[in-house]
């Protein structure tokens, strides 16, 4: 397993510059920056939340300005949160706790429960691969993002014995790099998440070997900065409620959501249709039970040699947005 220090160093560097961002923003935005408290900056992954909110019409009549910023994966999204460049964004429990365990000033504030029953995170192989089961992944080269939900899936598959010894060689790659490496045979498999699972399966005819069902909590969270929780509490609460309504709309209008997702992200419509089906869930307030579930996630990283000094699990969560004031 590769050393986590380079990633954590990068995260700490991003956190160290966050105090400069207000000054930089003031220079770039001029007088309008004085109204920053009226703007909620939301980090998105591949445009999925933005597409859903707009498709559901929940972006109308906002009492604040909503600004979107797009990221390829959770890791850079969480780095932006750590630097206070954005206020909130969605991330899987694995990457969130991996970043929080590096002592970044962020907390999970609202729950997005398992989407697709855990199918939205999976290990895929090329169409011609001789790998057919999780056991066949033993000793193979598997690409994923360090600290990602795909990384968590591999750690849990190893811990539960689904992938027997010898353990696979994990190659840490960004999604675009991992897809290219799989397509060219540089890695044997790719542990990834939506929309990349559907992109690989639908577009490249990859095989879904094993997914996250029954091996990990499969929760995602709307994560917020400590600063936003202190200064934009009302905006966060309103936004999470709008996203809850948007997800409810998406459950009943998957075809319409898929169409706007394809249009906004450039995903082929068949891929967007598969993504829409797997990513629909029912966001809900955080509860102590949800927090207890995530002990499995934290333990998985610790058993893999990461996050030894992460602190108390409950400190990773903020229940104030979920609790009526």
Automatic annotation (TrEMBL):
Domain of life: Bacteria
Residues in Solute-binding protein family 3/N-terminal domain copies: 39-253
Chief localisation class: periplasm
Gene3D superfamilies, per the entry: Periplasmic binding protein-like II
InterPro entries for the chain: ABC_SsuA_sub-bd, Solute-binding_3/MltF_N, SsuA/THI5
UniProt entry keywords in alphabetical sequence: Signal, Transport
Pfam families (alphabetical): NMT1 (PF09084)
Signal peptide limits: 1-36
Family recorded in the similarity comment: Belongs to the bacterial solute-binding protein SsuA/TauA family.
UniProt-annotated location(s): Periplasm
Protein name from the UniProt record: ABC transporter substrate-binding protein
SMART domains given in the database record: PBPb (SM00062)
């Amino acid at each position: 397993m590769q050393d986590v220090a380079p990633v954590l160093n990068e995260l700490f560097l991003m956190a160290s510059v966050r105090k400069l961002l207000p000054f930089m923003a003031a220079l770039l935005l001029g007088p309008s920056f004085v109204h920053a408290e009226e703007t909620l900056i939301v980090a998105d992954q591949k445009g999925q939340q933005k597409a859903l909110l707009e498709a559901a019409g929940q972006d109308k009549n906002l009492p604040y300005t909503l600004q979107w910023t797009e990221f390829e994966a959770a890791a850079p999204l969480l780095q932006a949160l750590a630097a206070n460049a954005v206020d909130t964004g969605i991330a899987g429990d694995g990457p969130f706790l991996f970043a929080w365990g590096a002592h970044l000033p962020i907390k999970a504030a609202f729950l997005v429960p398992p989407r697709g029953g855990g199918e939205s995170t999976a290990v895929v192989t090329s169409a011609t691969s001789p790998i057919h089961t999780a056991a066949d992944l033993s000793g193979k080269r598997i690409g994923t993002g360090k600290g990602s939900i795909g990384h968590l899936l591999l750690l849990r598959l190893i811990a539960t014995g689904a992938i027997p010894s010898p353990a696979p060689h994990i190659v840490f790659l960004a999604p675009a790099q991992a897809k290219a490496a799989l397509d060219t045979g540089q890695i044997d498999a790719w542990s990834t998440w939506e929309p990349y699972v559907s992109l690989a399966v639908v577009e490249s005819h990859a095989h879904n070997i094993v997914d996250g069902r029954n091996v990990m909590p499969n929760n995602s969270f709307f994560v917020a900065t400590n600063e936003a929780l202190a200064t934009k509490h009302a905006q966060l609460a309103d936004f999470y409620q709008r996203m809850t309504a948007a997800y409810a709309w998406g459950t009943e209008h998957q075809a319409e959501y898929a169409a706007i997702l394809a249009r906004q992200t450039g995903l082929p419509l068949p891929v967007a249709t598969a993504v829409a089906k797997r990513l629909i869930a029912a966001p809900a307030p955080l509860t102590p039970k949800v927090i207890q579930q995530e002990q499995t996630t934290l333990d998985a990283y610790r058993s893999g040699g990461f996050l030894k000094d992460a602190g108390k699990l409950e400190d990773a969560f903020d229940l104030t947005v979920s609790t009526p004031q």
